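User: quick one, fold this
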Amino acid sequence: MSAASPPSPAGRPPLRIVLADDERMVRTALRVILEAEPDLEVVGEAATGAEAVPLVRSLAPDVVLMDVRMPEIDGIRATEQILATMAEPPRIVVVTTFENDAYVYDALRAGAAGFLLKRADPDELIGAVRLVARGDSLLFPAAVRALAAAHPAGGPAAAAPAWAARLTDREADVLRLMATGLSNHELSERLGVGPQTVKTHVAAVLAKTGSRDRTQAVIAAYEGGFLMRKS
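Assistant:
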């Protein structure tokens, strides 16, 4: 993940964040770190997934930091319910202790924008919130690749996904580069095209793969064997 990005320009409202974790000390530590930044504001806290879902619906935050393992309703089900019932859902980052947690993979497939380890340092946490808020996904390429390898959709000889044939050559390149964790800005520099062109290509990739966001598209590409193929 890239280093923490600079704060929002003066005059722009702070990013609104909801914390969902069953440990009060964790929520308190996250709040202290985030609210030390002038462009970040914690607007609500929940101790369970069951509390998080209605809270997020009522507050409509920009970002949710969602513990993946909670009582009553875990972070996966809470993520699914939030994304399924809000016209403009927030960006959800699931938080976990282990990067190979199977729960994380299910949450990413459910539509979470990425995941963060509880041992992440403050700069990583702050950078993650700003990154997902501006529309990028929080991708750790090696971890996503390992998670996808542990949850294959088909064997080595499985046919290429139907959507692969619908990608243009440039869109296929964009998907492969997305899988390395590049942001839109980095994609623009790598491909030598403008930011709006990159957004257009990324939007086309999401539509053709049937993905909510970049993370889902990358997972679909790994599961379908697309990233192991020459075309």
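User: anything notable?
Assistant: The two ends are 27 Å apart (CA to CA).
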